[in-house]
Amino acid sequence: MRVVAQQWMSLDGYASGPDGEEPLFAAIPPDADAASQKWNDNLLDDVDAVLLGRRSYESFVQFWPTATEPIAARVNTIDKVVFSATLESAPWGDHPPATIHHDAVSYLRERRSTETTLLVWGSLALMHDLMAAGELDELDLFVAPAALGAGTPLIPAGTPLALTQLGGEIWPGATHLRYAVNRPAAAG
């Protein structure tokens, strides 16, 4: 199984601004957004399900079920799993609802031996939990041309990660970087 976390981030390492995601998303040029959607359209060929935290789910479900973006049909029909201790259902407009699980780490550990690719979209708290538990395999990063100066960091302070760069490219208005998260060898 491969768990890929995809995030937009600022040049100074923040995945959201001091007041949430809005300052970061406002800094993404339209050409960069189009390039990221084209990348995701291809990426979704290999993705079995999208993983979302509750807050990202609530944000995404307000936009995607009625979106007219070129990638909307794919976003709306792919399997989605929402991790929440409070939601009882996760409808997705006229499309199949997301399933709900309470514990992301247990969910992934139960499936670790399967040949599947799971994509964490947004969901920074979920990404941080998976990172801390050693359940994250890859970072797929879009770097916006902005320095926010403060906010929620992509990687929490005191979280060392050994990374191997898998690829990178310069898009009009953004940089795309991919890293494998190196796992320490199992003891014994």
Automatic annotation (TrEMBL):
Superkingdom classification of source: Bacteria
Pfam family, one: RibD_C
Domain (Bacterial bifunctional deaminase-reductase C-terminal) ranges: 3-161
Name listed for the protein in its UniProt record: Dihydrofolate reductase family protein
Source organism phylogeny: Bacteria, Bacillati, Actinomycetota, Actinomycetes, Micromonosporales
